[in-house]
Amino acid sequence: MPKCPYCSKAFGRISSLQSHTAFCAIQHQGTYAKRNSMEDLDVPPIRDMYIVLQKLIMDNEKLKKKIVQLEKIASKEKKKICLIDWLNARKKPPSDFVEWVKNITVTQNDFDRILNSNIVNLIMDIIKNNIDDDNVPLCSFDQKLKTIFIYTKKEWRIVEKDEFYRFIDNIIRKLTGQLNNWIQRNNLEFQNNEEKFHTYTKKIYSIDSEEASRRIHLRLYNHIKYNLRNIFEYEFSF
Q: Coiled-coil annotation: which residues (predicted)?
């Protein structure tokens, strides 16, 4: 099998060897020129220079195509921004989290469900009924797992554990208020049916606020979250 006299690479076809040898000879002379005078070099035949030029043009075209592909990738490369900065710039609810929590409405109909509903489901439904998608001071994202942001004091930040606990406890206290209203309206009935009275009071006062808060946090995160990558070409930092 014929081999290149410069690099000893073997070729199965003479035509391939000739094309390679023309290019390899010039490369070899370039290496030689680094160590010796240019006057010591032999000028290659025009045919060999044509082969080399042809190969360089083809390689250059391949590189151009790769550059175009890389530029397309680079144009889509995601800019890093902070989620909180993004929220502060684009989402300004009319009321902050503390005010919104105070104004959450718990109705008698909500209370009427207490015996036949899971307390987490009931509280989640109350929250959903008080959420205005455009103005709610709550937000979460796929890009920040299990994290809820709140709008307070004219800026967004991550809600703290004790804040979220107080938020859920506030709803439970409003359910308790509806219990007291219901007792006043049905006082005579309770006097004749203490078992019913104890059933309602036991249900409302046996709620584990901390456990409810933990479970609702995840449920609420999943309910209000959305994926900003569906809208923007950003990679988010936190």
A: 53-80
Boundary (domain end) residue, out of 51, 75, 99: 75
d(CA 34, CA 204): 90
Q: Looking at the domain assignment, is residue 5 inside a domain?
A: no
Q: How confident is the model at residue 212 (pLDDT cuts 50, 70, 90)?
A: very high
Tell me the pTM. 0.63
> What angle do helix axes 46-75 and 14-35 make, rounded to 10 degrees?
90
> What pLDDT is attached to residue 37?
47
Pairing of strands 144-152, 138-141: antiparallel
Range of the domain at 61: 14-75
State the DSSP code for 42.
P
Which of 146, 126, 150 has the alpha carbon at shortest distance from 138? 150
Residue 238 neighbours by CB distance under 10 Å: 10
- Stronger pLDDT, 90 or 217, i.e. the higher one: 217
Considering the domain architecture, whether residues 102 and 199 belong to the same structural domain is answered as: yes
